[in-house]
Amino acid sequence: MYDNEKQTGTAINAFLASDANTEGLTREDIHFTTKLASNSEYERARKSITTSAKKSGLGYIDLFLLHSPYGGKDARLASWRAVEDAIDAGEVKTGGVSNYGVKHLKELLASKPRILPAVNQIEVHPFNTRTEIASFCQENDIVVEAYAPLVRALRMKHPTIVALATKYSCTPAQLLVRWSLQHGYVPLPKSVNKERIVSNVEIGGFEIDKDDMSQMDGLDE
User: 133 partner at 20 to 30 Å CA-CA among 14, 20, 68, 93?
Assistant: First the structure.
């Protein structure tokens, strides 16, 4: 999708083989995700998945996603069949979708796929709760991967976020990540700052209480 499989795979392999890998991590400890840029006929989608796997140099792709529902029903279903076959071939471990609405998920499930989508990657945070889609996913055992869980840093100074972060002695970012986890989502916080990357995962020391979760849910715009 982003045409960076080769660079990403090279960086991962270099790290695993380096002295910086002080914990002795192996390929199996790394979770590598990539996407299909656009849905298409089966052969084109299948070839794209194989190309991504080979370019990465990692042996396989842990999670492969259909990036969006664009392209029409036939292209969506053909692309999913390509994902299924890539899983059978060992090129992909797990398949999922991204930016799929309830309509698109129902369409896929109604097609009786051999392999069900394990993930739907969508934008979810207190200011965009996506309740209908998230609930449908959870009812059908589809993991919600929440991208932009930090609201692209646009709401870090919102009065409610600031007040609750103060209450729980955490950063606004940690509060937002914790909100996602307590809803059962897998948040994907993004940062280019090492200290913030570390800080964003240090959220095990507190739990947002029920009333405060409801207050954050109420921020939906």
Answer: 93
CB count within 10 Å of CB 205 equals 10
Angstrom CA distances, 220 to 123, 124, 126, 130, 151, stand at 12, 10, 6, 9, 12
Task: Name the pTM for this structure.
Answer: 0.94
Helix, strand, coil content of the chain in percent (nearest 5): 45, 15, 40
Q: Which of 35, 130, 124, 119 is nearest to 82 (CA)?
A: 35
Closest CA to 203 of 160, 170, 167, 157: 170
Q: How many helices (H) and strands (E) does the chain have?
A: 9, 6
Query: Which of the residues are catalytic?
Result: 2
CA distance linking residue 84 with residue 47, whole number of Å: 13
> Do residues 58 and 12 touch, judged by C-beta distance below 8 A?
yes
Structure token pair of residue 218: 């109420």
| Ramachandran area for residue 143 (φ above 0: left; ψ -120 to 50: alpha; else beta) | beta
Please write the tens of the pLDDT for every residue from 1-13: 678 999 999 999 9
